[in-house]
Amino acid sequence: MPAHIADKLCGREFKNFDNFREALWLEVSKDPVLMEQFSEFNQIRISHGFTPFVPDKGHYVGPKEIVKKFQIHHFISIEYGGGVYNIDNLRIVTPKLHDEIHYRR
């Protein structure tokens, strides 16, 4: 996560992780350099606080679900003491990478 985005979220309190996710993408929407990396469709999603879709090669296609949007990964799992909202503990990854991290598939 870019430091300047993390700085804007640091110290804020969130009711739940959905609110955090929305705030994250709204901050991204304010950065033209980051926004130019996304398709026009995803730029619209991001400007409304919605998670953007990843390119097809980043999708996770599993036996029961297909995940197409970027994921927020906790570098140190919450179950092992990783902070839920600790910016330094969060990474934005594709669904495919998220699955590989957790399940080494």
TrEMBL record:
Alphabetical list of InterPro entries matching this protein: Colicin/pyocin_DNase_dom_sf, His-Me_finger_sf, HNH_nuc, Pyocin_killer
What's this protein's name?
A: HNH endonuclease
Q: Which organism is it from?
A: Salmonella bongori serovar 66:z41:- str. SA19983605
The text of the family note is: Belongs to the colicin/pyosin nuclease family.
The record ties this protein, via CDD domains, to: HNHc (cd00085)
Q: What is this organism's lineage?
A: Bacteria, Pseudomonadati, Pseudomonadota, Gammaproteobacteria, Enterobacterales
GO biological process assignments: cytolysis; defense response to bacterium; killing of cells of another organism
Q: Which SUPFAM superfamilies match?
A: His-Me finger endonucleases (SSF54060)
Q: What keywords were assigned to this record?
A: Antibiotic, Antimicrobial, Bacteriocin, Endonuclease, Hydrolase, Nuclease
Task: Tell me the superkingdom of the source.
Answer: Bacteria
- Database matches in Pfam families: Col-Pyo_DNase (PF21431)
Which Gene Ontology terms cover its molecular function? endonuclease activity; hydrolase activity; signaling receptor binding
